[in-house]
Amino acid sequence: MPPVVEVRDLQTHLVTRWGTVKAVDGVSFSVSAGETLGLVGESGSGKSMTCLSIVRLVPRPAARIVGGSVLLDGEDLLTKTEQEMQRLRGRKVGMILQDPMSSLNPVFSIGRQVREPVAMYHGLRGRALQERAAELLAAVRIPSPAERLRAFPHQLSGGMRQRVVGAMAIAAPPRLLIADEPTTSLDLTIQAQYLQLLEELQRKHGLAMIFITHNLGIVSKICDRVAVMYAGRIVETGPVRQLFTSPAHPYTRALLESIPRLGARLNRLTAIEGQPPDLARLPAGCAFAPRCPHVMERCRVEAPPEFAVAPGQVSRCWLHATA
Amino acid sequence: MPGDTEAGALALSEVAISTGPAYRSRNIPYVSLGIITVFVLLALLAPLLSLADPHDQSLRNRFKPPVWEEGGSWKHALGTDRLGRDMLSRIVWGARVSLAAGVVTVLVASAFGAAVGLVAGYYGGRVDAALMRMTDATMSFPVILLALILAVTVGPSFTNVVVAIAVILWARYARVIRGQVLTLMHLDFIAQARLAGAGAWRIITRHLFPNTLNTLVVLVTLQIGYVIIVEASLSFLGAGIPPPTPAWGSMIAEGREFVTSAWWVSMLPGLAILLVVLAFNLLGDWLRDTFDPKLRQL
Fold first, then answer.
1. Which regions of chain B are under pLDDT 70?
2. What is the CATH number of domain B62-295?
3. Rounded CA gap, B100 and B167, in Å?
4. Residue A246 belongs to what domain range?
5. Of A308, B118, B204, B289, whose CB has the highest number of CB atoms within 10 Å?
6. Predicted ipTM of the assembly
């Protein structure tokens, strides 16, 4: 089965006062229908920028997509006109953002906001529109949806609002759903419910899903494959189980080690030494070299290519070079 | 901002704060609403009220004092002016001019200004820079000067007064609305709308504009008073509503030579201006405190 979305060598640059920043530097991955890809990495590693590039909504005028291709069902999104993109957004690619507190328009009722995309995508009106909106709320497990349609955003809790946003995102339903840290600002119990809900929606509509997070626990729960990003590049990718049990890249290992574990008799939390890199002044070779415990001479000079370390697992590190 | 008129209104609201702080915003300003209602009704119903013709001159009845002064009569309850025209009737007809000028000007200015502000804030970058420089330039131009130029070149008229004030006043709306749009643009629901496939027009009209309505209503109310003052000033200078149409500003001007002998000719229209402007400002203050406390400095 061909993948729903295939990103090839995506390059997005930010032009800032301090120089050009390669926010996304040659990222490639693909996601099939029904599959969930987890994008993990520190803040500023380019996770969100990658996804905004897919829907072509990078912050203008600073950011510019300078290369690569994004194939959605075989069509390159980067060559589309803005008008064609507008018709694709929401209909083909849905996205859920992080902050449920501001992701709904405070002056309109839930009903009006849920009806808007439905009317836009399906041209429904009147009673049919109202019923479809209530169905959508029911689909995201909102109790008594018909009444909730009359509520205003401030009358709902964060978890409820995030459900409403989810309902709007699957109104089409789209082929690809991008969730950008959708559970970060929710309570833990609500988080679990919401993740379950996302999985359920994915199964029902056969969505390809990209899940952005820095929470590795969530990744292990709902993702099929993981891509670890560092300084605008994917440094390691592989099936979840594989990557969690035998991480290949030193950065992935460090990430996994820094998860605090219950019962582990540690006095201090394990941290990754050093600072996240200044993207405007990246070192010549591997971006992780200054913080890497296994750094070699070669790492500082030459950027590592991809090495296949196991079936489906790829790592960008000179450690795997069989010299 | 309308410095002099604001100062008075603010001083009064300070007093109100000290007497009933907690429930202040719930106290509907009945007095202001009452004054405004009375003047609006008078203005609307002026032709139906059995008032004397405001243009009827009678040199025998010049400078008749109001009814409560010695020599006054109910025939001219508020006296007559230097041409023997009935003051009450002229003040009522004058309310039509003042209120119409205030409302029309503010509506025109706010519609244009809000549009500019929405576009500038939404597109940002060069569009924003260009529109805001235009706004700055506009704000640096004195209203009175523009009105005088119009009056001299095209001749004074109601339309010219409205045009002269609106052409300058829109800039304030553009500024304030742009500022609001800038903060709104950072909120996720705008991003979410875009992600759902909404275009510029839909985002501006459906998402940004409704979120600026509170501010607009407050600004509009506060500015009606200001415009009434400016219109009166222009009429006083002879660059506003041309005679013989009764306008409060020109009535003050006509009576100013006789202030010592016939105070009512100038004072009564002045009192009308004071009441109406004060009422609008207090109402605006209340609206602002109730709907949009962040606008304090306006």
1. 1-26, 50, 67, 72, 292-298
2. 1.10.3720.10
3. 17
4. 5-92+172-320
5. B118
6. 0.81
